[in-house]
Write a structure and sequence with these properties.
Blueprint: E1 2-4, E2 10-14, E3 20-24, H1 29-32, E4 36-39, E5 44-48, E6 59-62, E7 69-74, E8 80-85, E9 94-97, H2 103-106, E10 110-114
Parallel strand pairs: 3-10
Antiparallel strand pairs: 1-2, 2-5, 4-9, 6-7, 7-8, 8-9
C-alpha cells in the first residue's frame, strides 16, 4: 500500500494498514489536519523523487517545542507526509499522514481522537 504527497515526489510504502488512526488536537496537528498511523520505521519504505537537477531530498523537516518529532513535508507541493522521532526518543517511530492515502483505504480504519492540547490522553 502506498501513500504519497499531491505531486508524487514523496511516497511512503507499507505492507499493512494500521488498526487505528490518530486525530490530534495539538497546536501543530490541528493545523495540519493530519490522520496519523504509527509504525516502526523498519516497516515503511520512503521513496523521494527529487525534481530534475536536484540531488537532495524531496522533503524537508520542521521541528518545534521539545524537538521530539520532526514533521516532513514535500518541498514542491507542501503536503505534510510523515513524522520521525528524534534521538531524544528511545524507541524510533514513524507516523504517516493517512490524508496522503486514497480515501478508500482510510474508510475502514477506526479514528481515535487524542487530546494533545491538554490532557495527553485519548478521548475515545
Amino acid at each position: 500500500m502506498q501513500l504519497s504527497c499531491h505531486c508524487g515526489q514523496v511516497k511512503l510504502t507499507l505492507a499493512t494498514p494500521p488498526d487505528t488512526l490518530t486525530s490530534c488536537n495539538c497546536s501543530i496537528c490541528s493545523r495540519y489536519a493530519a490522520l496519523w498511523g504509527y509504525f516502526d520505521p523498519k516497516e515503511v519504505s520512503l521513496n523521494e523523487q527529487a525534481t530534475s537537477g536536484q540531488e537532495e531530498s524531496a522533503s524537508v523537516g520542521y521541528s518545534h517545542g521539545d524537538k521530539y518529532l520532526v514533521f516532513y513535508h514535500c518541498k514542491r507541493c507542501g503536503c505534510v507526509t510523515h513524522t520521525l522521532t528524534t534521538d531524544k526518543v528511545s524507541e524510533p517511530r514513524i507516523a504517516l499522514n493517512f490524508r496522503m492515502a486514497p480515501q478508500a483505504l482510510r474508510e475502514n480504519i477506526q479514528i481515535r481522537h487524542f487530546d494533545g492540547a491538554d490532557t495527553w490522553q485519548y478521548l475515545d
